Amino acid sequence: MLFDDTFLTIDKPAEGVFRDRGSKFLAFVYPIHTESDIKPLLAQLRSEHPKANHHCWAMRLGIDRSVFRINDDGEPSGTAGRPILNALLSRNITNVLVVVVRYFGGTLLGVPGLINAYRTAAEEALNTAVVIEKMLNDIYTIQFDYQQMNDVMRIIKEDNLTVLDQQFDNTCIVKIGIRRMQVNQSIARFEKVSGAVIKLII
């Protein structure tokens, strides 16, 4: 059972291939964190496959099914990006970009053939990918006096929080990730530390 603060994604890039009537569909799947990750990956594939006819793709971010983008890259509308996205949605994985590179084999596949080819190629790549479960963390900063260091660090250790950045001076600032399900519990503990100021960043 997946809770609201966990999601499925992949741990590293993977590849797959599908052939139909001379056309070759090479599928590449990448873990991504933001939309800005997409452009360099597409540019890299275009430079590696300059003679390919199409570079069609779909991406999904976050646990909300409404955060996605698709691109048919010249194929008939709805025959490439959407089937690739459907392969992602059917496995409920996110924070992923799938690109399918097509080399045209001379025979037209028709709309049903294209939909099947792009979906199957995406599935072939996803079949080789290692799916992992990750936690959704909210990011906070905690500002406190140096004297409260032990109290703050004890809470971080006991609540198993992720330290992302830290600056220790007379006034200390620690940036932490708190699992969404335990935010209220951890914040309540920090608020008991004298003089500590907690701010939500993301």
Structure description:
The chain is an alpha+beta fold and 202 residues long. Helix content is 30%, strand content 36%. It is built from 5 helices and 11 strands. It has a 5-stranded antiparallel β-sheet, with helices on both faces. It has a 4-stranded antiparallel β-sheet with strand order 9-10-8-11, with helices on one face. It has a two-stranded antiparallel ribbon with strand order 1-7. It is elongated. The two termini are 26 Å apart. The mean pLDDT is 94.
Write the layout of secondary structure elements.
Blueprint: E1 6-10, E2 14-20, E3 23-31, H1 38-48, E4 54-60, E5 68-71, H2 81-91, E6 96-103, H3 110-128, E7 131-135, E8 137-145, H4 149-158, E9 162-167, E10 171-179, H5 183-191, E11 197-200
Antiparallel strand pairs: 1-7, 2-3, 3-6, 4-5, 4-6, 8-10, 8-11, 9-10
Briefly characterize the structure:
The chain has 202 residues and is α+β, with helices and mostly antiparallel strands. The protein has helices spanning 38-48, 81-91, 110-128, 149-158, 183-191, and strands at 6-10, 14-20, 23-31, 54-60, 68-71, 96-103, 131-135, 137-145, 162-167, 171-179, 197-200.
Largest sheet: 5 strands, antiparallel
Number of DSSP strands? Answer: 11
The largest beta-sheet arranges its strands as: 2-3-6-4-5
Order of helices and strands: EEEHEEHEHEEHEEHE
Shape: elongated
Q: Please, what is the average pLDDT?
A: 94
Percentage of residues assigned to helices: 25-40%
Beta-strand percent range: 35-45%
Secondary-structure content class: alpha+beta
Number of helices: 5
What is the radius of gyration? Answer: 22 Å
